[in-house]
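During the reporting period the student researcher (J.K.) took over the structure-prediction task from the postdoctoral fellow and processed the backlog of single-chain submissions. One of the processed entries is reproduced below for the supervisory committee.
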Amino acid sequence: MRHVVTLLASFLVLTATTPLAWAQAAAPVAPAPGQAVATSPDAASVDAIVAALYDVISGPAGQARDWDRFRGLFAAGARLVPSAPRADGSVPPGLSPDDYVQRTSDAFMKNGFFEREIARRTEAFGTIVHVFSTYESRRSKDDPKPMARGINSIQVARHGGRWHIVTVMWDQERPDNPIPARYLASDPPRH
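J.K. obtained the following structure tokens:
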């Protein structure tokens, strides 16, 4: 019996010290598809991930967006949902981050698009946070008036040492849907 234990121990030591075993042990673990590396500054806080979301989609005409950075903000299975009413009354389809990239890439390259947060309301519990982020959209950063305003409803969750966007749903302001005053002022700072 002692001989079997010694033989087994020798086998394990030899197996663990082969070049293949060393290479496998030293190989970095790749993030899951659609996931950024946990050390990404974009995913370090709710403020950072919301700022990154606005930053990555904004830019002048002719400037390619960093779609890998964009994808890295989202959890696996994340959805982006435009919710403004459609003329035919149908429900707008939810988009994956890749669907959103396909839907907007050409338009963003042809026309400038800048979106910025102008106010925020936040609710949090445990690992989940809901951000009601009021935005303004412009074609050029210097446009005196926005072409659109609305609210992004952003759900984020903290897992694996970082924040992930789970859902972004948005609706635009229109004559029959003005932004309420309470969403044009940010939450008071929490201490």
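The committee noted the following: Residues 1-31 have pLDDT under 50 and may be disordered.
J.K. will present the remaining backlog at the next meeting.
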